Amino acid sequence: MRLRAPACSLVPLLLLAATPAFADRVAVLPSQGGADPAARAQLDAELLQSLSALGHTPVPTNETLAALARVADGSADTPEEYAIVAGATQASWVVGGRVEPAVATAHVELAAYLASLQRVESVAREVNRNRSGVEVQEMVTVLLRPEGVGVGALPWEQAPAPPQPPPPPPPQQQQPPPQQLPPPPGPSPWQTGSMTPLPQPPPPPPPVLDGKVELSYISSGKESVWPPYAAGRRIFVSANIGFASAAARPEGATGGAASFVGALRGGYAVGDAGLELFGQLGGNLVGPPALWLDAGGRWMLTPMTSRGADGRTTGFAFHVGPELYAGLFMRLGAGSVTGPDGVVYESPSSAHASFGAALDVVLSLSPAFRLEAQLGNFRVVPTGDGAIVTLGITAGASLRF
Hints:
It is a single chain. The protein has 401 residues and is an alpha+beta fold. Helices cover 18% and strands 42% of the residues. The chain contains six helices and 19 strands. The protein has helices spanning 4-22, 37-53, 61-68, 79-89, 132-143, 189-192, and strands spanning 25-28, 57-58, 93-101, 105-114, 119-128, 213-217, 221-225, 235-248, 258-270, 275-286, 290-299, 305-307, 313-316, 318-331, 335-338, 344-347, 350-364, 369-383, 386-400. An eight-stranded antiparallel beta barrel has the order 8-9-10-11-14-17-18-19. A five-stranded mixed sheet has the order 2-1-3-4-5, with helices on both faces. A hairpin with a 4-residue loop joins strand 9 (258-270) and strand 10 (275-286). The radius of gyration is 49 Å and the shape is elongated. Mean pLDDT is 84; it is low at 1-22.
């Protein structure tokens, strides 16, 4: 009995010594860092789970927040401020974390304050976000021990042991080689030369990439468009100026035969083959006064294109085609004029049907802006005193929508 009494008296002392390591209270401060509140909340939860798994008792969150209210700036990051939180919560440890998340990893830094020694230590590491719970618990294990972090490499900084080579496979019994069968009688095809090669499959046809045409524009470079002429912009407006000359006039006509003309046009491209309908209003800006109102159509082709071996159609944004039109031609009279001898001369206005044709040329600077010209501008105007036939040329610019 004398020998057992001292031994039994040591048991409570050993339990008291073990209690701070396994049942001590730990105050967990709200995590900081990063712009993602979800990452900070995840680190808080992983710290609480790690403490519980290691046998520590986390201080309730409301008690920790109430203790932080006693700190001047509401955030504990110095030994004095850690001491305030530890004293208010009766905690043996105060732990705080900081996280900076990345794509696949997160930089985690943990600081721990041991109240009994007034010691602050910290550890940091790159945590794999798929194993963050396990790796954060490894950090807590290193921090929350009385002896502290210590010196030397941390467990996760130590190089892993090289893998052991696999054991050699068990020896196998030698299998006898398969029995060779005698060759068939007669010469082989290799000896007689009668072996014919297998037929090769035909090459696949070149692919058609996207059903569009790649045209080179002067200002915008290469663009894939469809249809080639309209380039997806079917509505257009244009302004043209030029000159015309009367190749035939009624007998008795006076004045010059040449005129400076101008016209405004608007139209719509129908379908994908280059057919375009238009209407125009024009007149003589200089010369015999006249106006005309026409409706017509033109068929614009894109001749400078070709299809390559890869199935892509490429070319230059240049278009040409004929146009036909018909409408109303109005000669504007000067009204009544009284001569020196008192004779009154009448010069009334008149309107006549007309029709004509031209060769159109279009050079596209971009799918939306183009330069164009009408060559020939053959127009016939039947009148009661004879036919008017004019020829000319106009040029201008157009916008497409």
